[in-house]
Specification:
There is one protein chain. By secondary structure, this protein is an alpha/beta fold. The chain folds into 2 domains: 2-95 and 210-274, 3-Layer(aba) Sandwich (Rossmann fold), CATH 3.40.50.1860; 97-208, Rossmann fold. Helices cover 45% and strands 18% of the residues. The protein is built from 11 helices and 11 strands. The protein has helices spanning 17-26, 48-64, 75-88, 97-107, 119-124, 126-134, 147-153, 162-175, 192-199, 208-222, 243-254; strands spanning 7-11, 32-36, 69-72, 93-94, 112-117, 139-144, 180-184, 204-207, 235-239, 260-263, 272-274. It has a 7-stranded mixed beta sheet, with helices on both faces. A 4-stranded parallel beta sheet has the order 6-5-7-8, with helices on both faces.
Length: 275
C-alpha cells in the first residue's frame, strides 16, 4: 500500500537528521530513508547550478528506493530548486524554508527577525522573501555563518573555540535587536544550545525541523498517505561519505545506534553497500 512506503529525506551531511528526529517523534509509525551527502558537503559555498545537480541526483536515488514523499532537509537545496523539484516529481516534495518562516512569524513580538544560514541560502534571500510575502511589515536581518556547518560535521560542537566563533558571528543580531532568530540551516539546531547561550532568553530560536515535520503530517494526511498501522517502523541511513564516521556522529545526534550504508552517487546504478 502507498501509505506503507517510506518518507525520503536528505541533506548535504548530518543536518537533516534534525528533521529525521522530528519525524520519528511526530510521526512514529512512518518508515524513513535518509541520505547524507557527506562526501560533497558543504553545499552552502558551492555554485547554485552544482547544488541543483547534486540535489536532483539524490532525489532520483530516493525515488528509485520507492519513497512516497521527499523532504529537502537542506535549506540551500530548498532555496536553489524547490519549485523545480515540485515540477519534476509526482510525489509531495517539502522544503524547510516556508515552515520555518511561518513559525518565526508566529513567534516574533517586535517584527524584527534574524536569519542565519549558508552563503547560498543567504544570497538567495529566500527567507526574507518568504517572510515578507506573508507579512510585508517585517524587518529581516540575514547573515551567512559558514563555519557552523563544519563545526557540526567534524563533531566540534563542544570544542573550546566554538563559543567564541558563534559569538563573533551572532553579535550583529544583538545590535539589530531581533527577538526571533531562524536557524536557517538544518545543521544549526545541533548547535542550538550554544546559540541559545549567545543570544539569551529574550530571543526565540526557530528550528525549522519541527515545523517541517508538522507540515509532512498535514500533507500525508490530506493525501491519505499516513502510515497508521506500523508497530515496527524502519529507518534506513545512507551516506556518500565514510560509514563509520556517519554512524558515530549520527548515532550521537539521533540518540540510538544507526545502521548505515554507503552509496556512490557517481555510479548510475547507485549500488549501496552495507557498513
Amino acid at each position: 500500500m502507498p501509505s506503507q512506503l517510506p518518507i525520503g529525506c536528505f541533506d548535504s551531511g548530518f543536518g537533516g537528521l534534525t528533521v529525521v528526529k522530528e519525524i520519528m517523534r511526530q510521526l512514529p509509525q512512518e518508515n524513513l530513508i535518509y541520505l547524507g551527502d557527506n562526501n560533497r558537503y558543504p553545499y552552502g559555498s558551492r555554485p547554485p547550478e552544482e547544488v541543483r545537480a547534486f540535489t536532483f541526483e539524490i532525489m532520483d536515488f530516493l525515488v528509485r528506493q520507492g519513497v512516497k514523499m521527499i523532504i529537502m532537509g537542506c535549506n540551500t537545496a530548498t532555496a536553489v530548486c524547490l519549485p523545480e523539484a515540485r515540477q519534476r516529481y509526482k510525489m509531495p516534495v517539502l522544503g524547510v524554508i516556508t515552515p520555518g518562516s511561518r513559525a518565526a512569524i508566529t513567534a516574533t513580538r517586535s517584527g524584527r527577525i534574524g536569519v542565519i544560514g549558508t552563503e547560498v541560502t543567504i544570497r538567495s534571500d529566500a527567507y526574507a522573501r518568504e517572510l515578507q510575502r506573508i507579512n510585508p511589515r517585517l524587518e529581516v536581518f540575514s547573515k551567512a555563518c559558514p563555519p557552523f556547518v563544519h563545526i557540526v560535521e567534524t563533531d566540534e560542537v563542544e570544542a573550546p573555540l566554538t563559543m567564541e566563533v558563534v559569538q563573533d558571528y551572532l553579535q550583529v543580531f544583538h545590535d539589530q535587536r531581533v527577538d526571533t532568530l531562524i536557524l536557517g540551516c538544518t545543521h544549526y539546531p545541533l548547535l542550538q544550545h550554544v546559540i541559545a547561550r549567545v543570544m539569551g532568553n529574550q530571543v526565540q530560536l526557530i528550528n525549522s525541523a519541527e515545523e517541517t515535520a508538522r507540515e509532512a503530517n498535514t500533507v500525508l494526511s490530506e493525501r491519505g498517505l499516513l502510515n497508521e498501522s506500523n508497530p515496527a517502523p524502519y529507518y534506513h541511513y545512507v551516506t556518500t561519505g565514510t560509514v563509520d564516521h556517519f554512524r558515530t556522529i549520527g548515532s550521537k545526534w539521533i540518540g540510538q545506534p544507526l545502521t548505515v550504508r554507503r552509496v556512490d552517487l557517481g555510479d548510475s546504478e547507485s549500488q549501496a553497500t552495507a557498513g
